[in-house]
Amino acid sequence: MARVSPVPIGALVLGVAGLIPFLGFAALAVSGSDGGLGTIGLSPRTILSAYGAVIASFLGGIRWGAAAARNAGNADYLLAIIPSLLAWAALAAPAPWDLRILGGLVLAWGLVDQDLPRRGLVPVWLGRLRLVLSGVAGAALLVAA
């Protein structure tokens, strides 16, 4: 049985900090308040959707980087572009489908990437951290939808 190393503090702190926009803008969207963003022509939903798309693309980058670092193969590179493409399409979808697509994508990708630690492409702690972060972020997107 492989020994599980602890999550590096930097990864934990930055990962949790990355949830703040999901939780904050989802809360604003659900409350009906624009948090003063209307004065500059933005809404919490718009910002949440854009942030969700950026993070979904980042998730694909994790797989791309793991594949490159370990020479994993073409299938991983192909799989790595899926989050970016789906997130891009979600930005063109009307509400509430934009956030539904992004929420489902972020949730699903937390599960899809669980093969990475099993295959030794990333540390075990990263798989576990990804499940938690993807769970919270995906749920926030879906609640705001």
Describe the structure.
The protein has 8 helices and no strands. The chain has 145 residues and is an all-alpha fold. The chain has helices spanning 9-17, 19-31, 44-70, 74-80, 82-92, 97-112, 115-118, 124-144. 74% of the residues lie in helices and 0% in strands. Helix 3 runs antiparallel to helix 5 (82-92).
Q: How are the SSEs placed, and which strands pair?
A:
Blueprint lengths: L8 H9 L1 H13 L12 H27 L3 H7 L1 H11 L4 H16 L2 H4 L5 H21 L1
Helix pairs in contact: 2-3, 2-8, 3-4, 3-5, 3-6, 5-6, 6-8
- Percentage beta strand: under 5%
Average pLDDT over all residues: 95
Rg measurement, Å: 16 Å
Instruction: State the helix count.
Output: 8
Helix content: over 70%
- Given as residue ranges, the uncertain stretches (5+ residues, pLDDT < 50) are none
Write the element-wise H/E pattern from the N-terminal end onward: HHHHHHHH
Total number of beta strands: 0
Instruction: Report how far apart the termini are.
Output: 41 Å
Structural class: mainly alpha
- Overall shape: it is globular
Largest sheet: none
Quick overview of this protein structure:
With about 140 residues, this protein is mainly alpha-helical. About 75% of the residues lie in helices and about 0% in strands.
